[in-house]
Here is the input.
Amino acid sequence: MFDRIKSDIRAVKDRDPAATSTASVLLNYPGVHAVWLHRLNHWLWRKGARGLARFFSQVARFLTGIEIHPAAVIGKRFFIDHGMGVVIGETTIIGDDVTLYQGVTLGGTGKESGKRHPTLEDCVVVGVGAAVLGDITIGRSSRVGGGAVVVDDVPENCTVVGIPGRIVVKEGSRVDVIDLHHEVLPDPVIDMFRQMQRRLDALEARVDAATESPTDPEEADTRP
Here is the structure.
């Protein structure tokens, strides 16, 4: 247990430059508190004390602003930065070294039973205000951009942006590296408009060249 607590604190220090000391992490990081409380609640859930687990999960929500269902399965070194407004649903599965930012929702899409929440594999980063919905899988080392809404599976080492989420393969991505720069994301819509603009410019240039006045005096207009 103490080794896991140490690894949680180390994960915060590695990913947040504002974490200047162990005391700061222990006192000032509700994301860490929420994860530790969840482990207690998850243990109660597995032991059959589900009503008690649900009650304590609501207490944790009141204290931290983070709602984690006690049945959710969470791996090692899970870090919720800031954390206010984060919601993690009942059948969510989260791997190791995953990072979530504030306002993230890992939710369902309806009243279906069984596995209805997402699976996040190792080293996934989910940006501010993003929603990952349904029984889908976000592959290892992938990133979900801030404000994205993802409803389909995402392969490993990809970036997802937009509503609905669009997959953009990240060039030069490296497996097992936690890339926290979730604000530096390509925009496929802007890229499409830029391509259209370049084509329009080329067409206008061709039209202008075809309609230019003749420069040969013999071809010039001789009308009065």
